[in-house]
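Quick board copy: two proteins, each given as sequence then tokens.
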Amino acid sequence: MAAASTHSSSKLVVFGEFFIDLVFYDLPDVPRLGEEVKTRRFAEFPGGGLATTALVASALGTPTAAITRIGEDARLSPAWLKLASGGVSIEACEFSSRLPTARTVCAAYRSDRMMITHDALNQGLHKLLSHPAVRRQLRKSKHVHLACDLTPTATWLSLIRRIHDEGPTISSDIGWSPRLFRSPDLYSLLGELDFTFPNKVEALAMTGEKTVDQALKKLARKVRVPVIKLGAAGSLAVQNGKVVRARSIRVNAIDATGAGDAFNGGFLHGHLAGWPLETCLRAGNICGALATTAAGGSSAIPTPTKLRKLMRSAA
């Protein structure tokens, strides 16, 4: 397993939505309507797939840029400052004086969570991809990861094809998007991607299949390398018709917020370092598992040395 170097030509650009995550964790019970649940554990973190994926990849040694839109209120937010000081380039980001930065309230119970989000700022986010500074970042990149909802699909099909034509490979984690799952253009969109990263629930929903293996097989007809994240059970993928599986490590999980995005950062770090697919899956599994051991997806990022040690033990 060759180490990725910050001096290599590999470059990751993560495009998507940034959120200020207000996380209530270590809850004694599941919140229900009409009731109040109290906890002494609370924190503010950079949220959304963009922040966690970028922070993990950058911390592991991949030169990484983030492209998003935030409000002027974010300039003094600990969540934004963590991203800005985490080695991630933010030079192509846009600050809005009209709307506040998107926010998510996360209620974490054991290894799961529920969320409420306000994200008016993220409407029309795809328009950023036409800005000259953003296009320069994309042309310099080796890989572009889309950490956002890819609707309207016709618009995103055109944008993704344009990015591909300029050279970089492309991945996406569209998250839970019922409207996109029902779209007749879903498989045309997936066909433009080199990697996609749904979890088990998302994979079953987007394919309409009843088992993970069936969902993976269906995704493999369109995506070059579809990856399905299985949480504590690890992950699996298909490459050149061959199914590749990797197990995870056992951890004491307290907050699952951002774990899937941490997986993406670890996986893409390995991909850009030239690691084999099974090794990339193991790197993703470990980063995702460690993310659950602290509040927020980017609070327990391993060092490159720790990642290599854990990967050897998980082999």
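And the next:
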Amino acid sequence: MFNKQEEKDSNFKDAETIIGPSVIVKGNFNSSGNIVIEGVLKGGVKTAGNVYIGDKANITADIEAKSARIGGEVRGNMKIEGVLQIVASAKIFGDVECESLSVEMGAAINGKITMGKNLPAEKKTEEKLAEEEKE
């Protein structure tokens, strides 16, 4: 999904929205393309594309995306449809839902992690309760 500098350069080139390292943004982003965040964001991020969060980025937002690479600090919940890559410099404070997860040594995650191709955890629980009531 994301491979070091070559992949980072590719994401910058293909990105629909780029928040540079000196930029501070407050607001919600809804997009169908890739989003690159190197600065500060307070709000929300929702995209059908990929999210690349730089190593020095500071995010206070819930994030929904196809796949993501996290390098900075994220305070909020994440719902990632595919692969979530968390690199050594990342600090995550919030719950994570994803299909597949890669975590480098040194990364910090403080929250619940739910993985798999199935439904989100809340829906699984609701369906399980419904099945048990039928029995």
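Board note added afterward: Residues 34 and 120 are 23 Å apart (CA to CA).
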